[in-house]
Amino acid sequence: MRWVRLADRYGLALGYAAGLVLGTVALHAQPAPVRARWLDWASTNLANAPDHPIGALVVSAFLTAGTVGWWVLLALVGLGTVGVAFGAWRGFVIVAAAHVLGTVFSEGILAYRVATGALPAAYRHIQDVGPSYVVVGALAAGIAYAPWPGRLACAAGFAVLEVSAVGHVSAILVALAVGGGFVLARRTAVPRPVPDGR
Sign of the C-alpha dihedral, residues 14, 129, 145, 174? Predict the structure, then answer.
């Protein structure tokens, strides 16, 4: 059915963008002390990792302390392109892996630097929320694997982002690896002609 196909292609982008808008609007509607508590709880930092890592990982992807407009636009471009190229559930796996593993790699390096004294212990409590790993991972996968119109749109979106942090580079590499795995699986799953025995 047509609506099922449309949901498979664009549902991930629309759903994530809506969640990002709702989460950020709810955040900014709070008084400053409440907003600070929300951000502290949702931060994917070393202090929260032993207590509520999954909750922080999920909620952090739907909050941004700054303006949300550009993130929503880039999310629609990146996740929409990935949805067209891979479908909803494969697209979800790509961006979820980019978000989770980008965070794990970034915080792992930070933990090592704190443990060795290269950074003060206060870095365990840094405020770290936002959609950047999801969006960067989606844009990178779109550039690599989508049809050409989507690739160009994702490249334009990627050009306005700063991706110098280790976590962003990790998110990009993870998205490319997972997307590449799906592409390889799709190619190897194509049925080959069966000899007719003549």
Answer: negative
Do residues 91 and 12 touch, judged by C-beta distance below 8 A? yes
Q: Rounded to an integer, what distance in angstroms lies between the CA atom of residue 46 and that of residue 180?
A: 31
What token pair was written down for 105?
């790699």
Contact 24, 38 (CB under 8 A): no
Residue 128's closest CA among 86, 165, 84?
Answer: 165
Question: From first to last of its 198 residues, what are the pLDDT tens digits of the chain?
Answer: 788 899 999 999 999 999 999 999 999 999 999 999 999 999 999 999 999 999 999 999 999 998 999 999 999 999 999 999 999 999 999 999 999 999 999 999 999 999 999 999 999 999 999 999 999 999 999 999 999 999 999 999 999 987 777 899 999 999 999 999 999 999 887 565 655 554
pTM of the model: 0.92
Q: How far separated are the first and last CA of the chain, in Å rounded?
A: 40
User: CB neighbours of 52 closer than 8 A, spacing ≥ 6?
Assistant: 41
Residue 69 burial by CB count (10 A; 0-12/13-18/19+): exposed, middle or buried? exposed
